[in-house]
Specification:
heterodimer, A: about 500 residues, alpha/beta, Ubiquitin-like (UB roll), Alpha-Beta Plaits, Rossmann fold, 3 domains, eight-stranded mixed β-sheet, five-stranded mixed β-sheet, about 25% helix, B: about 425 residues, de novo design (two linked rop proteins), four-stranded parallel β-sheet, 19 helices, 11 strands
């Protein structure tokens, strides 16, 4: 591995590494706009100019590969002067409209200006080139051309990642304009990713723009519940209202991206019809009352008439808690449903046909897909059942259904007892994606009202039944028990899963 | 001096194959095909021929960079996208002696083992296009192009691609991009075209004039060519002279020839009543020479470098005392701002900025601070970008202001042009 000296620091990096990444490995940030680790090198912003010993001209770090013995300076006066001058050029025609720009607070132009420049403009404001504002590029993205610095990350994203020709640059010089090809729209299934890779406020997400200043957002690491891929995401919320989901880097799963469809999965969390209180019939009840009523209902019941219906929409922990609860009742009848049916929107990249985040997990825990078995009378169900599942088990006919659900919706009228639980955004636990990767989701905020995790409801119930399990106080504790009991989970450690996930055994 | 490039210029109908052949055309091929490709490269190397597109890089050496074992086809691109303001030499070669170029293309292609050559022709050159197209057709008919050329087993196809009007497509990697059907953006280097050029294959891009010198070199020998010119700048070169001189036009001149003599003798001197103030010697993008420098400098690469400028494309623009340099710089800035491809921030924004300052200044609204601002911008635009278009306005800006600062200051102080 070549050794390079960057700002007096010797870094040992793999062959073929460029200087931006090499510096990063050494803890040094080389400022850049057009470079993106997942896209081809364009080398147009000129922000990453660095000095390399024995080379007369400054070189762009993004297009320079390390070589043994290379000596690089990223912050001497010459480099800093070049950087300031590039910033000045980029800023002369920029509208400097930070107060009304959605990017403010997470804008590289702002950041680098504050960090490296802070110069007063030498360019008269009335001489700025004016370009189109609020250009509708497609279903997700708006363009403010005056803010665009023409780094072409978005153009390259479309060509190289989404593999479509939708965006291009037309015109020349300082009249260059980002645009869609004639007759085309920015409408590929991954189109909104261009918003995150846009280093400035030129591309904004129609679903997010004008909703919230970014410095009010709190970020929680999670996993997209939109399909079995389990793309890693951030939940950005303020005071319990989710404003956006953004992709989080996981090279083994979604790299840097997520699909547009996945970005909408937060909408039901914010919905008005959340189930806030436990209910029997039409009546809201105190949790203790409901739990007592359930215990009474179940007293003396033949365990063979009891079944648990897990869900590919719920975490491993919730499903596992259900399984252990049923086991204590003496029933081993475990089925699961995929709430979302297989879907035609699918590709060979991130979009999977199975629109449930945890099908692999629930089946690994020993749940069987719902069949035609109609003998059960008592049902503990995670999440609203799809129509087709309802018909298969004939739930409607004089059955007792205890349903754990985040929403109070028309379609769950078959449930005798409704217990409020959190959505993915309000739940701590794990999903197992289609690769068999166990990934953690985290609660961005608590569920509304009396909502609590399934495993917590069941822990309270077991106490009433005076059974030993499930009895958990935290999701990690539950996970530990699962890792001890379930072969495929053996050896997995909740902490080690971290934010990148770990593969199931086998 | 032998006329290497213009020997046929005075002969009508030499664009017709029989006439060209009658004047000894295509005769070099027999010798070329009797040599190995490497020997042709050696011959060109020892002639000292340097690229005539502007950079002056050794032609034989450029060919030598082409890897012969890449397993990919090798391409030759003829750069006929002559667009440098003040330069109109290639146009004359294309119009007046197209077969010489074709002969040169065959020699170069054979030397680098290329079987498909593309001629990237400036879009506005419609008449040259017609002449070339006809000449290529004749060459195919007579077996100089196509399969099994002259029974040697060597195949070569030559295609014309007409540009769409971008100055930047004369930059060799932008030319390649454009030829591939893409937007004319110069490419990052490395990789260099010799290794990864057209369609990702090894590619040589040569200027029209460079290729047109090959038939002479191969027929008469490198030694004859090297006898002309200076040691480091051997041979002859075309110079296109414009401005207030008696006989503007294209001249073939032995390198090392004094610029003064070229202007005052070959080009007939200044028009009556006109006094020479300055000369842009190598196309619009090179630094300007003042009258005293014009007296001393010679037309070769080294002498020009000594005076801080470049031989460039050989586009000699003569400027007289009555012509306002503020206006000259404004016109140039407008051109480069218009032609900047817009990729690199310093060029995209800098060319436009210089143009705006110059427009203001020319209109009498400049400030004394503008001059230092321009010099500072010129520095900030130099050597920071993918190609040299930004340098091409930075160099004139710096040299005009440094050498003629008084004229700029007067313009600013008077708030108008003193030349009118």
């Amino acid at each position: 591995m070549p050794k390079v000296t960057i700002d007096e620091k010797v870094v040992d990096v793999p062959e073929g590494t460029n200087l931006i990444e090499a510096a990063r490995l050494g803890g040094i940030e080389v400022p850049h706009y057009c470079y993106h680790p997942k896209l081809s090198v364009a080398g147009n912003c000129r922000m990453c100019l660095v000095e390399i010993e024995k080379q007369p001209k400054l070189q762009i770090a993004c297009n320079t590969k390390v070589a043994e013995g290379m000596v690089v300076k990223t912050q001497n006066p010459r480099v800093e002067k070049a950087r300031r001058s590039v910033l000045e050029f980029i800023l002369i025609n920029h509208p400097i409209d930070c107060p009304i720009c959605d990017q403010a607070g997470e804008c590289k132009l702002q950041e680098y200006y504050m960090k490296h420049d802070l110069a007063v403009s030498r360019f008269p404001i009335e001489e700025k080139v004016h370009k189109d504002k609020a250009v509708d590029l497609g279903p997700w993205v708006m363009l403010d051309m005056e803010r665009c610095i023409l780094c072409t990350r978005c153009v390259r994203f479309c060509q190289e990642v989404a593999e479509v020709n939708e965006l291009c640059v037309s015109e020349r010089g300082d009249h260059s304009t980002l645009t869609t090809f004639p007759g085309a729209k920015l409408e590929n299934p991954y189109s909104a990713n261009v918003v995150e890779i846009c280093p400035v406020g030129a591309l904004t997400n129609k679903d997010f723009r004008f909703k919230c200043r970014v410095w009010f957002l709190k970020r929680t690491e999670s996993v997209c519940p939109g399909c079995s891929m389990g793309c890693n995401i951030n939940i950005d919320q303020n005071e319990g209202e989710i404003h956006r989901l953004t992709p989080r880097v996981n090279e083994e799963v979604n790299e840097h991206w997520m699909c547009d469809e996945g970005r909408l999965t937060y909408k039901p969390v914010n919905q008005k019809n959340r189930l806030r209180f436990a209910k029997m019939g039409e009546k809201d009840l105190h949790p203790d009352e409901v739990l007592r009523a359930v215990r009474e209902m179940m007293t003396g019941v033949d365990p063979n008439l009891v079944c648990g219906i897990g869900s590919a929409q719920f975490t491993n922990e919730d499903n596992y808690a259900l399984a252990s609860f049923l086991k204590e009742l003496g029933s081993s009848h475990l089925f699961y449903h995929r709430f979302e049916p297989a879907h035609p929107s699918v590709d060979d990249y991130l979009i999977k046909a199975d629109k449930n985040p945890n099908t692999k997990g629930v089946s690994t825990l020993g749940f069987k897909e719902i069949g035609g078995d109609r003998r059960f009378k008592f049902f503990f169900v995670l999440g609203a059942l799809p129509e087709e599942a309802l018909n298969r088990i004939a739930l409607e006919q004089q059955k007792k259904v205890i349903l754990f659900n985040p929403w109070d919706e028309e379609t769950v009228h078959y449930a005798d007892t409704l217990l409020p639980v959190g959505t993915f955004a309000e739940t701590e636990g794990t999903f197992t994606n289609c690769q068999g990767r166990v990934q953690r989701i985290r609660a961005a905020f608590p569920p509304p009202g009396e909502g609590r995790p399934v495993w917590q409801w069941l822990t309270h119930l077991t106490r009433l039944f005076e059974k030993p399990a499930p009895n958990y106080t935290t999701a990690p504790a539950l996970f530990l028990s699962m890792a001890n009991q379930i072969a495929a989970f053996r050896g997995l450690d909740y902490e080690k899963i971290g934010n990148q996930g770990m593969l199931l055994k086998g | 001096m032998d006329r290497v490039l213009t020997a046929n210029f005075d002969h009508p109908d030499v664009d017709k194959l029989p006439v060209y052949e009658g004047r000894g055309g295509y005769r070099s091929l027999k010798k070329v095909f009797s040599l190995k490709p490497e020997q042709v490269i050696e011959e060109v190397k020892s002639s000292g021929l340097r690229g005539r597109g502007g950079a002056g890089f050794g032609t034989g050496m450029k060919w030598g960079f082409v890897p012969q074992n890449s397993g990919k086809p090798i391409y030759l691109c003829v750069n006929a996208d002559e667009g440098e303001p003040g330069t109109f030499k290639d146009r004359e070669l294309l119009l007046r002696d197209p077969h010489r170029l074709i002969e040169g293309v065959i020699i170069a292609s054979y030397a680098i083992r290329c079987h498909t050559a593309y001629l990237y022709l400036r879009g506005e050159f419609f008449e040259p296009y017609q002449k070339l197209e006809a000449a290529i057709r004749e060459a195919y008919t007579k077996g100089y192009l196509g399969k099994n050329i002259l029974g040697t087993g060597y195949d070569l196809d030559l295609h014309i691609h007409r540009g769409a009007g971008g100055y930047i497509c004369g930059e060799e990697t932008a030319l390649i991009e454009s030829l591939e059907g893409k937007r004319g953006y110069p490419r990052l280097k490395p990789p260099f075209p010799a290794v990864q050029g057209l369609f990702g294959c090894p590619t040589v891009v040569n200027n029209v004039e460079t290729l047109s010198a090959l038939p002479y070199i191969l027929e008469k020998g490198a030694a004859s060519y090297k006898k002309m010119g200076t040691e480091k700048s051997p041979g002859t070169k075309l110079f296109s002279i414009s401005g207030p001189v008696q006989k503007p036009g294209v001249y073939e001149i032995e390198l090392g020839y004094p610029l003064r003599k070229f202007i005052h003798e070959d080009a007939g001197g200044m028009l009556p009543g006109k006094i020479l103030k300055a000369v842009i010697p190598g196309g619009s993008s090179v630094p300007i020479l003042d009258a005293s420098e014009v007296e001393q400098v010679n037309l070769d690469y080294e002498s020009m470098n000594q005076f801080g400028t470049f031989l460039g494309s050989g586009g000699v623009i003569v400027i007289d005392e009555d012509f306002c340099l503020v206006k000259a710089l404004k016109v140039l800035a407008k051109f480069y701002a218009h032609e900047s491809c817009g990729q690199c921030s310093p060029c995209r924004e800098g060319t436009g900025w210089v143009h705006k300052i110059m427009t203001r200044m020319e209109a009498g609204k400049g400030t004394p601070a503008d001059l230092d601002l321009l010099l500072n911008l010129a520095d900030n635009m130099t050597g920071q970008t993918i190609c040299v278009l930004a340098d091409s306005i930075a160099m004139p800006t710096r040299s005009y202001i440094k050498k003629f600062r008084q004229e700029f200051e007067d313009h600013v102080a008077l708030q108008k042009c003193s030349k009118m």
